[in-house]
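User: quick one - fold this with S-adenosylmethionine bound?
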Amino acid sequence: MVRITRIKMIKPYFKSKDKAFTLLHGDIFELLTQFDFKFDMVFADPPYFLSNDGLTIKNGKITSVNKGKWDKSKGFDYINNFNRRWLKLIRDKMKEDATIWISGTIHNIFSIGQLLTELDFKILNIVTWEKTNPPPNFSCRYFTHSTEQIIWARKNAKVPHYFNYELMKEINNNKQMKDVWALPAIAKWEKSCGKHPTQKPLSILTRIILASTKKGAWVLDPFTGSSTTGIASNLIKRKFIGIDIEKEYLEISKCRKLEIENTPFLDRYRDNIQDLKNLR
Ligand SMILES: C[S@@+](CC[C@H](N)C(=O)[O-])C[C@H]1O[C@@H](n2cnc3c(N)ncnc32)[C@H](O)[C@@H]1O
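Assistant: Sure. Structure tokens for the protein plus S-adenosylmethionine:
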């Protein structure tokens, strides 16, 4: 039985009836030092620090690129220090055979890649998520940005990690799965509980969790937002703890968990996630 020893001392913002979905409210730099539980897998979608008052096009309308005060552009040194601090704390929360997935764009991915090496992680893959329906480029001075990178790394260079190679092959028409995944950007049905400005699609998180964990595994998302990681984890019988500094996003997370406890909603989630459809 997995005992979350010192995590019990932190009052959760929300804990589901099935005990497989826990949300903690606060700053990771304070919360992560308050418990010593070790996870099987971490997914992190940290702030990209791209909110620089620029403009983009969303649903055909000119919109600000700003996401929120947590994402304000603060310069390379700040981004690097922020990433070093949370990566150090997270490494300590990982089992020796655990892996971590970190998503990013040109704004932060080079900093993350360098720090993973500096902190003795072993980089396994850099998955490119190719968005099948990207927003157009507003300035017409660059190629349309249509990808995000997700770095997959393991904690310990000497300890083997888990990879569900056969399942990934099965999902991919019995061909080896490549590190380029063509999956659509977030769909409307995924926003039924409200909007998070950088919500990840469930199709990405489901594939990540299927590839790198077994049933019953404990998954941590330190920047949980709307808890796409938690919803995907629970849909495929993994257990989840998510942290966010903004209560507004934890409310969206809680609503999404309550939705999947309800059969018609659960079926809609399962029917719309590419890899779950293919596995039926
Ligand atoms: C890029 S978003 C994650 C979105 C998430 N992947 C989803 O699917 O909804 C980053 C999140 O980190 C949270 N955040 C930023 N700084 C934080 C901190 N120091 N501690 C905890 N959460 C933080 C923000 O509130 C935001 O929701």
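One thing worth noting: The CA atoms of residues 57 and 108 lie 22 Å apart.
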